[in-house]
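Predict the 3D structure for this chain.
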Amino acid sequence: MRRAFFVLVLVVFGVSAYGKVKVTNEMIYEKLIEIEKRQAVLEAQFGELRHYVDKRFEDINRRFDDINKLFEDINKRFEDINRRFDLINKRFEDINKRFEDINKRFEDMNKRFESLQEFLWVLSGIFTSLVAVVIGFAYWDRRTVIRKAKEETLEELERYVKPERLRKLLNVAREYARRNPEFMEILKKEGLL
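Done. Predicted structure below.
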């Protein structure tokens, strides 16, 4: 405001110097009073404007505070959501660890089954080999025993039954068959007649 006053004084003195208008003290006092009145009006208007602007700034500040509170609430909610997601992630990690443990157990079981299966294959191979050996031994033993028994029987037969005696026995059976037709049929079936 003081600047306006000095500018006005300079303008008045400048105009008076060029226009050769005589400026009196009264004119200056009148102009000063007029300037002071205008200044008072302007200050009143400025005061009202300042009061209005201050109210608006307070309202704006309150609104910003409310918005800040809302954002803080939203941040808290997001933090709660993040905590919940962290808990869910931990649960999923626990579940994954449990599944990994279960997978390890299944792998161990598979290894055990594979070793048991290999053991069973070895046992079945051993059993098959033993059965084959036993059957082979029984076959060999039977052939050997039968051959020996045959040989011994033939030796015994030769010792007790001589071929001459057999011929005599066959002749006796033929003679008897001539008299008995049933016996004859039996000898024919056996190819002895």
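The chain has a mean pLDDT of 83.
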